[in-house]
Each structure stands twice: as C-alpha cells, then as structure tokens.
Design brief:
The complex is a heterodimer of chains A (about 110) and B (about 180). Chain A has about 110 residues and is of the alpha/beta class. Chain A is built from five helices and five strands. The radius of gyration of chain A is 12 Å and the shape is globular. The chains are: A alpha/beta (about 110), B alpha+beta (about 180). At the A-B interface, helix 2, helix 3 and helix 4 of A face strand 4, strand 6 and helix 4 of B.
Chain lengths: ~110, ~180
Amino acid sequence: MNVKDLVEKLQLKALNAMADRPVTGVYISDMVSDVIANAKPGNVLVTVQVHNNVIAAANLVDVAAIILTRGRRPADDMVALAEKAGIPVLLTDLNSWQVASMLFEAGLR
Amino acid sequence: MEAERPAYRYGMVDVRPGYIVVEHEIHTQAMRAYFSPDPVAPIEEYREGKGIWKHSATAQSVRFSIRDIGTGEVTPFDELLGLAFYGSCPKESRVWEIGDLAQEHKVSIYVAVTTEGAAGNPSTLPAAKLRVLNRYFNERVADRAKKILILPDHFGLYREFSHGHLMVDLGLTAME
C-alpha cells in the first residue's frame, strides 16, 4: 500500500506535495522522542502533535507520511518544513483511534 | 501487512524513558539541563555548594544506546540531551542558514546537543559516537539521495536548550 492509497481510503486532506512511497506499517505517538526510538522507516505516523519537532523526528526515522488527527491544523512553518523534507502531511477530523481502526482494516499493522 | 525490513548493521538498544530537566541557579541565573531516569521528574529545589538550584522546565524524553550487530559493540549515548533539527531552530540562526542550504540537496542537518561537561560547559559528542549515530539513522533512509547529517554542537545550542528550541517533547507539555 502506498501513501496515495491511504489518502483515498481514509479521505485524508494532503497539505503539501506527496511523495508516493510504500507504507510499511503504522506508529501512533504524540511524543517526539518515542517516535525517534520506536517508529520504523516507511511507517505512517499518526499524531495530534503539530509542533515543528514532529517533522524533525519523522524526517530522522524516514516515515512515509504524517496523519494529523482530530482536526489539528499545523502552522504554515511546519507545512513548509515538511515540504522541504519531502514528508506528506495529511489531515483528518477523525481521532487517532478511528484512524488506527481504519488503517488496521486497510491491512496495515 | 508490514513489509520485510532490510538487515541493518546497527540497532537501538537499552531505550530508557525519562525526563529532560532544566533548572536554574537562583542567584546567578545560570541554567543547565540533564536527563533524569526517575519515574517522576524531580522538581525539588536543592543546594550545591553556595548555589541553590531550582526547577525550570521538564520534558519527556528517552535515552538509548546503539549496538553494532556485527561486532556486538554497544555505544551508549548517555551524554546526549537531544538532536536539534535545523528547521526547529530560529530562522536567523547559523544552524538554520546552513541547514536550509543543505536541505535543498536532501541533506537534513541535526545538531547533537549534550549534557554539561565536568568544567561546567557542554562537551561535544566525540567523533566516533557521531559516526555511529549518523550510520544508524542513514542506513534506515529509503531514499538513497537523502542523507541525515548529525553535527557536533559547535553552534552553542546547549544554551538554547533552556529555552525549549530543541527536539524534545516540550511541544507536548505545552499543549492544551
């Protein structure tokens, strides 16, 4: 499954240009250092965090995309940083649990 | 289904949760930060010589080591306070200026910020440890054109740490 497939299945709103790459799994966390220690390359990161440090961590572990849940909207700075790092930022009004359930149903583990 | 992962030379081991504690001395206003592995972050005021140190801020974090899977050698990163991404630094800073130039060429600049040395100043991470850290993260990057470059703290970012610019979880604690 690729990032674009996820966008279609979950009806996510993309805030920047999307590098369509395979998604290898899912990691859900709102703690930056936890993402660095435990997220895997190619994971989609599900979070409510909209701080620039989320991009820093996501870029470091090479996540495939970030899904911001519960209608959280990032500042333009964060989107610009994600764009430069080549990380798609995707929005949804669903909460993290609902997104996790849909990702599970879509076959991601 | 999760895709099969490539074999890596390095693995992160001994990951311990804890806190980055920032404190200040009440007379001189000197500030310092350290990692606490305690289950609850220490906030008590205490004396050290003539100084009285008081809690300023706390951020959740982790401490880790990296193991060379081939040789079994474990490199601890106990002195590492955090990795500062150029994009999380102020736009007028040297780190941002250098990082922005590098990012155009898909090189992501981070600065390894360390704890205070014996003389009261932060010591930079030794070159051998920086190499291990750079290898660990770079061998996981799928895009071969992309690079992670973690630099020693020759920028004095340790001082900025007290003001929350670094890549720790201050954003989380600041949320509503």
